[in-house]
TrEMBL record:
Gene Ontology annotations for the cellular component aspect, listed alphabetically: cytoplasm
Pfam families according to UniProt: ACDH_C, Acyl-CoA_dh_1, Acyl-CoA_dh_N
Enzyme Commission number: 1.3.8.7, 1.3.8.8
Domain of life, per lineage: Bacteria
Name of the protein described by the UniProt record: Acyl-coenzyme A dehydrogenase
Pathway(s) served: Lipid metabolism; fatty acid beta-oxidation
Acyl-CoA dehydrogenase C-terminal bacterial-type domain: residues covered: 458-730
Phylogenetic classification of the source organism: Bacteria, Pseudomonadati, Pseudomonadota, Alphaproteobacteria, Hyphomicrobiales
Cofactors named for this entry: FAD
Family listed: Belongs to the acyl-CoA dehydrogenase family.
Keyword Flavoprotein included in the entry's annotation: yes
Amino acid sequence: MRSAMSFRRDTLTKPIFSWARGVLPAMSDTEREALEAGDVWWDADLFTGNPDWSKLLRIPQATLTDEERAFLNGPVDELCAMLDEWKIFWEWRDLPQEAWAFIKREKFFGMIIPKEFGGLGFSPYAHSEVVRKISTRSIAAAVTVMVPNSLGPGELLMRFGTSEQQERWLPRLADGRDIPCFGLTSPEAGSDAASMVDTGIICKGFFEGQEVLGLKLNWHKRYITLGPVATLLGLAFKAYDPDHLVGDQEELGISVALIPTNLPGVEIGHRHLPSMQVFQNGPNRGRDVFIPLDYVIGGEARLGHGWKMLMTALAAGRGISLPSLSAAGAAYAARTTGAYARIREQFGISISKFEGVEEPLARIVATAYQLDAARRMTCAALNAGVHTAVISAIMKLHATERMRVAVDDAMDIHGGKAVIDGPQNYLGNLHRAVPVGITVEGANILTRNLIVFGQGAIRAHPYLLDEMNALADTDRERGLAAFDKAFWKHVGHSFRTLFRAFGRSWTFGAFALAPDAGDATPFYRQLSRYSAAFALCADMALLTLGGALKRKEMLSARFGDILSELYLLSAALKRWQDEGRQKEDFAALEWCMATGFRTIENRLAEILANLPNRFVAVILKLVVQPFGARVLGPSDRVVHQCASLVLEPTAARERLTPDLAHVDDDSGFARLERAFKLVTSTDAIAKRMRAARIRDAKDAVAKGVITQAEGEQVAAAHEAVTKVIEVDDFAPEALSPIYKKTGGVHQFFQELGEQRAAS
């Protein structure tokens, strides 16, 4: 056996190894550190081409403890009651002071900090649920709460800080004595962190009256959330040691340090106004700011390890904050748009009856179902301590993109109601906030084209990372041995995937592996089929393009779309199973599956049409898509059933839109909820009136069609609907200071006319 393996290695593997080492592109330190950060999870199963569905269904659901549930129903509800989004973004341009004080007192900034350091010690799922609920009341408040619990000093200190740093800083972050922010983005670099010009030079200097070894820092950062009010800045910079004070290297690499903002040389800039959102955000600078080395997170030993630290922390944070806000936005859009479509009449009937309204409404409903399914499943991984790097990128990208579609659809259905701004507009500010989510934590264009598949293909593939590490090994003989082992396993995997993909594609997945999942069983078969097709095509693209694949961004994006759909559809199936296979919700699941399958088939067709090696493309088409892209998307029946899930006050509607912030005030959302309840509760009465061809409740009472009490119910519903349909208007002097100075718009134009006449 040993001689056979030696013969294979020396005769067959060695020339392949030599060729591959020659064509493998050099990997930068930042690329390698990004790849090594975080963990693989269900994405690795999908990359095998033969996912183990029993493993998926065994994943424990993310749940809240009694303490976490009490916080959600107590302090979170109290905070939401303090918030008036219109006043926050139009009048105050900030959260009210009592909200800031409450957030600090109740330790909203310390949700993820362990109890031994004074924090709440909540799970990632609890963090997600809190952000989700607050998001449906105020975007500014949600962002304010999410940032200290995401990528920032707290997360980095917990994972990488020394015990002394943790004991010093974490209690202050937990109770709000320090407000944190994190400075990563430089004007010159943007998303290309490797190009940042922010520097830290190791030198000796005086700090608190003593000469110590430290860093002289110079930086310029922008887009820093909480930056204008932060007292503790986490800073990413490039460290240099020109005088070799800590070692032989001069360029140490990206590092991360804590900077109290009251240090000499720190300059906190003015505020940004991102898409009219008024959460605290702005630039800052540092000019010759000196800190001791023990302000570097993790101490001297962590100098130059900052990029891996950031990517590891981001693997968790990116899977929580923005996906939570996005899932909340989609659920909020589903609840409000369903209610509005139900109560709003045009041409004498509810607009929810129009098929032109049903189609976008169904899309909103199914998006809400899918995003929350994926949010919960991702939180389940995070609760288990898995830091899902690729999945977090998928979640951030697709949650924000699909929220954008859902909110746009909601705006279209609401029409003028959502366009006219004012205290009664419950959608306008969410619509304005969407571009912020699209842009931050890695712009979606970059994430889709370079990260999801670019990292996923290496991290989640069963053998590719082992092969790359073997090829990069400086010990050639050791590298050859490792490559020989991984390469032939890869070859065997590719042949198994080839036959698996061929059989499943030609039989339309009829015999693919699937659990006994009732009505959903055929969906598992199709995902098994598409997983095999994806794995085979990915292998062939990597084989024929090698390192050039990362420059084929459109191909990479299409592969990433397929991987993303496989994950999101898996999450939707798991949700349906975990919730007890609710028959009422099956239409939402069907919509997700039909739409996802259409995307997968179209992306496969696009990949095969654009793969540079045309011979391989033709063979792959015969194997994985012999009959072309055939899925057309959800049927009209599914669209109708899906849209109807939010048109009545049912358990299905509550499952789809749970735990939104409900404050019984005179806000537009509260008015809508009251009107929806009144209209749906008088539906039987309204049907009797329509059958009698009577529209006026008083006439119906007079003619004995309905009782006096029923007439009063109908009148109350009509009045409630009228209040919802109303939009805000303003005195001209309330909107413009010009008219305040002249005594009103009429006087302004009268004086203007007189001036023209006189001239």
